[in-house]
Amino acid sequence: MNVLITSIGKRVQLIEHLKQEHYIIGVDCNELVSSKEFVDVFYKVPRYNEKSFIKTILDICKNEKVDLLIPLYEKEFFDLCDNRKKFEEFGTTLLLSSKSIIDICNNKLNTYEFFKKSNISTPVSYSKSDIDNILYNNNEKKELKFPLIIKPIDGMGSNDVFKINNEKELSFFKEYVDNPIIQEFIDGKEYTIDVLCDFFGNVISVVPRERIEVRSGEVVKSKTVRNKEIIDSVMNLCDKLKTASNDNSISIVGPLTIQCIYTSNKVIKFIEINPRFGGGVPLTFESGVNYGKIFDELKSNNFNIKKLHDFKETLMLRYDEAVFK
């Protein structure tokens, strides 16, 4: 099967895993990316916000006879969704959830509202206007409990994520961080959960990964954990997310990367949902979930979901490598 992956950057392990089963076409707006050396063929493409971006991707899908299109960069998602049927005309399946699901996931305030509406436990969150009302209304100041976490509503990774310890810091960072969301700080173990869904919104695999050590927003030490409470809670979340789609024909599709905190009192607080592969997903591959093989079965309609895909508990210790030319 021919698989096109966008914004490949340094996603070498993802590419190497899928390359075991498929012919991999990689694209990026930057030609100096390490993953370029590991794909079967590479194309430099326009940036996501250039008018020629979609046409270029469509042309590549047509010329390379692409079966499966896997986008990795959130800012591409809406335009790709808008052109899903055009890709299908070339026989290309877009491995991406519906536009309404992406709208829930890519805006952290929308995610928070979804969690609240669905009775899913999550940290209390505030918009900038909420905070302004609290700070400048003495009757409401008692609502705020420090520390807090502030980050961009549409942020990715650890960029512009700060811990706030007092009102003075809050006053500064709410202006410093562009379009922020401010969240209650939750102490506990952090987990990222790799979820894979079929083309009809059915969950195939749920693999929790404990985040032992993180550097610049990307996990460097992690282990997969068979935590039934987390797995069951994620299944409940996915059921509710599936019904939140406004599109009749499509809901949750392909990868979801879900983050939660597991407190010492065994309370699960969900933080984020990302409708794409996370940076630590190679650990899930190594734990026994062969995404490359599953993609083949999904495309050929040979996949029969009787129970969640099994996985083994595995430890990952990452290190840096380099490409020299």
Automatic annotation (TrEMBL):
InterPro entries: ATP-dep_AA_Ligase (IPR052032), ATP-grasp (IPR011761), ATP-grasp_PylC-type (IPR003806), ATP_grasp_subdomain_1 (IPR013815), PylC_N (IPR048764). GO terms for molecular function: ATP binding; ligase activity; metal ion binding. Gene3D superfamilies: 3.40.50.20, ATP-grasp fold, A domain, ATP-grasp fold, B domain. Keywords: ATP-binding, Ligase, Nucleotide-binding. The keyword Ligase applies. Pfam families: ATP-grasp_3 (PF02655), PylC-like_N (PF21360). The keyword Ligase applies. This is ATP-grasp domain-containing protein. The lineage of its organism: Bacteria, Bacillati, Bacillota, Clostridia, Eubacteriales.
